[in-house]
Structure formats: C-alpha cells, structure tokens
Amino acid sequence: MAVAYSRTLFGLISWYSFLIVAGILLAYLIGLHEEKRVGLPKETMTDAALVAVPCGVIGARLYFVAMEWEAFAANPLRIVYIWGGGVAIYGAVIGGGLGLYLYCKKKKLPFGKLADIIAPGLLLAQAIGRWGNYFNQEAFGPLLTDPALQFFPMGVQIMEGSGYAWHAATFFYESLWDFLGFVSLWLLRKSQKRDGNLFLWYLVIYGSGRFLIEQLRMDSLWLLGLRISQWLSLALVVFAAGSLLWRASRAQPKALFPAFLIFVAAIARWFIPTPGIYGALLLLITGLWAWCMVWGMGSRQEFSFASLWFLLPWAIDAACFIISWLNLMPYAREAQMLAVSVTLPCYCLWLAGWLGRANQRS
To answer: What is the CATH number of domain 250-362?
Structure first.
C-alpha cells in the first residue's frame, strides 16, 4: 500500500472524487442525526447542505487556485477540472461557512447551533477525504532517509525520476488527527451549552493539528517564516480559543488574565527552538495552574475529574520535554512539537471549565 495502485476507482470516477463525496454524505447523515437531537426544524440540515456544500466546493477550489496560480495561469480553463484533484480544506470551511451563514440569516436560524451539528461530521469528512491525496500522490512530506521510517503508513513511495522514493505520509497523519478530533467533538457535543461552542472547538482541534502537520508539507507556500496555512491555523486557534475563554469568563472577567497567560504560554511552545525555554514555559504553565487551583477566585479549588484535562496532557508534555532535553530518542524534537498540538486543546478545555466553575460560584 506504500504506492497507490490507481488514481481511479472505475471508469472516469477517481478515488479522490469518490472519497470527497463519501465524506460529505457521512457528514450530512451525522448532521441529520444531530438536527433531531438539538430540536432544529425538519429538513434544516438538508436545505443547509444544498447551500453550504456547493459553496464549500467552490471555496475549496478557489483557495487552491489562488495558492497555486502559476499552475493555472497558462490555461485558466483547468480551474474547473476539479475531478483531477486540487482543493483546500480551509477554502471549503470559508466557502461553506459563508454559505451557511447566508442561509441562516435568510431563514432566521441560529448560525451557531447549525454550525455545531455540522462540526463533528466535517472533521470525519476531512479524515476520509485526505485519503484522496494518497491516491493522487500529493500532500506528502519530506524525504524519509531513515530505513526505520520507510513503511506504510509512516511513509509513502512517490515517483521521482525513474524510481520511487519514501516520503512522510502527511495525508495519513492529518487523517488520523481528524478522526481523533471527530471522536473528541462527538464526546463533547452534549456538554456544550452555548450555541457555536462546538464549532469553536472544531477550529481549535483542527487548527492545532494542521499547524504542526503543515510544517512537513512539501507543497505549501511560505509567508514571513511560516507556511500560509500555518498562519491561518494559528489565527483560527487564537480566535476560537480566545472566544471560548471569553465566553466562559463573562461573569468573572478577572479570571481571564491567568487563563490568558496559560494559553499564551501554551501556544508559544510552537515557536521555541530550545528545550530549555520550552521547559521554562512548561514551568510557567504549571505555576499558573497551581495558582488557579489554590488561590484563584479567592478560594481554594477542589480537585475534580475535570483537573485530569490538565494533569494528563501536562504529564505528556513533561515526558516529551525530558526526552527532548536529554535527547533520549531520535526525533525527540518532533515528539515535543507533537505534544504541543495534542496538549493545547486539552489545556483550553480545562481553562474553559475552570472559568465556567468560577462563574457558577459568583
């Protein structure tokens, strides 16, 4: 399986197109299920899909074309050849989100509630659709020179010149991340009491993973030291996490300051080149958490199950830091960066819960 046997499923039907359609269909069915649970009018999901899906497809294609304009400049007609691959998920989110917003505005429906029921299925659709990159032999990472990493799905073989070369299977990394994100959103969906929160968690989870994986991509454009999709991922994570913390702290705005410091320290770890500074940030996060638990809001906080959302990721963080600091294994630096993407949503979840409990006591 290190090499896709064919780009087409049968006839003129490509695997890429089939997987995208399959992902959209599953997302639609999940949305239908959630439509009943949250009490939206019947046929809301169907009508919304008829607007959002075409807008998402158009947005996905236009975003890709804008990023790869040199490949289309000589023959602009190729822009409509979408069946051959070449779409961007961020373009789909922007285009589909805009279509959904306009639909909700016209029908006088709550945009946040409808976005919430779409979010889990959207991540599952992304997990499925990423396998289209496998069949198209695109969206792969750097050359894998270590024989220990030359196996599928850690790597894929890409035709180069007269032979194949092993490259990082970034499509698989993102597909796995998206599937785990889908599971996380599915478990979170009933605990989110405010419209729009689940979609914000989608942005935090997906953006955290995409920021890391995008560093490995070979086909991305750069801007000011980061890939464009990394800038967009960073912006979405900051916006979504900031919105979640702000919403949770409305009754206790003073509590937002230590929560904000923890979030800034957590996200800054993506940009730290040395284990020493990373460790200092981790120590700062630990101290701020202890302050929140012992002195926050003027009273000692009880240890609860919710604290595990901080302690378990913190343990992962600390372990990866020690491994990187002592250089105990190959690719320790990469493991440390993975820990940032894994733990960041968990820290945000604990912070939102802590702020919510502070509101209840006020």
So the answer is: 1.20.120
The pTM is what? 0.91
Ranges of each domain in the chain: 250-362
Q: How far, in Å, are 114, 145, 151 from residue 148 at the CA level?
A: 45, 9, 8
Number of Cβ within 10 Å of residue 214's Cβ equals 20
Please, are residues 328 and 228 in contact by the beta-carbon 8 Å criterion?
Answer: no
pLDDT mean for each 10 residues of the chain (362 residues): 68 84 95 91 93 94 86 82 77 94 94 96 95 85 88 86 87 95 95 93 96 82 81 95 89 78 91 83 90 63 66 89 83 83 92 76 54
Are residues 29 and 118 in contact, defined by beta-carbon separation less than 8 angstroms? Answer: no
* CA pair distance 170, 182, nearest whole angstrom: 18
DSSP helix/strand/coil, 234: helix
Q: Of 272, 241, 271, whose CA–CA distance to 259 is shortest?
A: 241
358 residue type, one letter: A
- Give the separation between CA 233 and CA 319, rounded to whole angstroms: 26
- CA–CA separation, 278 vs 228, rounded Å? 24
* DSSP reduced 3-state for 168: strand
Do 144 and 168 form a contact (C-beta atoms < 8 A)? Answer: yes
Looking at the DSSP bridge assignments, the partners of residue 166 are 157
The CA distance from 100 to 50, in Å, is: 10
Contact 339, 317 (CB under 8 A): yes
